[in-house]
Amino acid sequence: MSFEEEWARLHEQAGLRLAGVAPIDGGGGAPGPKLKVTPSLLENRAGEADTVRDALRRADDATLRETGQIPGGLAGFTSAGAIPVFQERWAEQMTHLDDLLDRGVAQSLRNAAGLLRTEDLAQADNAKGIDVPKG
């Protein structure tokens, strides 16, 4: 297939998608299973973010504990003054990362789970009111 032919085919498929018509070959999407998101999946992922956050805090504590011992060994060296600067910057970055994992990831996932659960219940209530003819 020439470049021009392939370009024309892709252009036509894009136009169909924009018009809300599915391409003849089904187009789009990667092969494989569809994404299935549930409130419990989102809550589990939030728990995993909490686990990462806890591990990060332990690593932070260990790093600050170990680097806190360095200035004593560098007494008399000009570079000894760099350690407190490093520790201060490290603490700022760890606080930022901790906040991202807490509010930016875990809390956002929990909020999304709650919204999804609420929407599912609302849709179930709506479906109960639909009169489906029998027969």
Structural class: mainly alpha
The count of domains is 2
Query: Averaged pLDDT, please?
Result: 86
Give the overall form. Answer: elongated
Helix content: over 70%
Succession of helices and strands: HHHH
Low-confidence stretches: none
Rg value: 27 Å
Q: Count every beta strand, where a strand is a DSSP E run of 2 or more residues.
A: 0
Which percent range describes the beta-strand content?
under 5%
Fold and architecture overview:
The chain is an all-alpha fold and 135 residues long. It folds into two domains: 1-32; 39-128. It has helices at residues 3-18, 39-67, 70-73, 82-128. The radius of gyration is 27 Å and the shape is elongated.
Short descriptors:
135 residues; mainly alpha; 4 helices
Concise account of the structure shown:
This protein has helices at residues 3-18, 39-67, 70-73, 82-128. The protein has 135 residues and is mostly helical.
List the helices and strands and how they pair.
Elements: H1 3-18, H2 39-67, H3 70-73, H4 82-128
